[in-house]
Amino acid sequence: MFNINLLSFMLVILLVQSSYANEDDAEDSLESESQESLIIESSTRLPVTPWRPPYFYGPTLFQYSPAFIGRTYPAFVPFTSCTSPNKETGICADSGTCTRLGGRASGACPSDGRVCCINVVTNTCDDTERKVVTLDNTYWLSPTMGIGSSTTGCALTVKLDAKLPEQNKAVCQVRLNFVLFTIAQPNTESVCSTDTFEVVGASNKIPTICGDNGGQHMYLNVPSSATSPTDLQLSFNFGTDSNPVRAWNILISMIPCDSPNLAPLDCLQYFTGRSGTVRSFNWRDVAGTETRQLANQDYSICFKTIPGSRRTLCLAPCTVTSATLAFSISMARPEAGGLAAASGSSQIRATNCEKDYLVIPGGYNIGNPPTVDNMAYDRFCGENLSALPRDLQRTSVCTTATPFRLLYRTSDDEMDDIVGGAERGNLGFCLTFRNQ
Fold first, then answer.
1. Which domain covers residue 195, as residue numbers?
2. Within a 10 A sphere around the Cβ of 34, how many other Cβ atoms?
3. Signal peptide span per the entry (predicted)?
4. What share of the chain is helix, strand, coil (3-state, %, to 5)?
């Protein structure tokens, strides 16, 4: 009897222990599944940004999918640029990913089977609309139907954050390429009083500009997006104009912090070629007497030192086809001795180029006659570029001061830039350069 009761008791104990073990296993399984679910969800979830189409948020956008089995490249790798057959700049992506990004395929990327994906954002310029760009090499276009006279502005945000999967790397600069840029001209005092283009959020000084700036560019410095995510605000502001012509196409390119293409700090413009053309904003080879020089300009223009060169940068006025001037930075003041600069002549020194000027450190003329000693100066103004005062001859001004950097400054208006009253009709400058 005793043995039977003991056996029954032991069986009950074993059943209870088995029940608890099964419950623990179930809980462990649920916990494991929950953690796995969180991991999967975390790895595939994309941050919501308002401009993306709904189909953008597919879980395999930045992952491998069954369609990619057997390939040796991912669907999308940030900061892999390409050029389409139409000379547009895009990113390399799988064709399906390009579609989900809202882009269009144009040509192929070399060697890896991906397409060159061209991405475009177009504003309606509605007061309630603000587009957001998070993707490298994105074109920002003005409304296809034009801009009405009642429209007061148009804005776009460039969001920089290394945690975004479409970036996934620290960004330190953004380059704006003005493929097309036309808004209202400045007034007769060189002030952008009707339309403006402004940038907010960059750590370097960005001037307000207006007029015609197709072919120009800007570099915007930002803190590393890995430690300090940044929102850059790009905005056009429109005033009242009886005949407004407003259109733009701006390529927005993000430059990682470890890229060899970074511009030197505080360089609004950066030229890397051995030769080329540098222009002040709104300079154009067009006939007319309207003011094109812009007020309140204060920025540096930098040039890459070419390996193997003689470390000399030479600049000369562009050849123009109209009646305009290639160098026109505020007609110089009469000198202390009473010698006024003639129309079309150069001027130098801080005393003569007080408010509006171009700084070429240690600038000197080449090709001077033997009887004329080369003189090195920094400030240049007037209606011709030369290191000699009141010079009417076309020449080149060179500098050996490296790193190569020019400084362009203009005052807040033209009201008192010369003795005797206001000056109007200045154009700015267009210079060819040779890095030799």
1. 76-262
2. 10
3. 1-21
4. 15, 35, 55
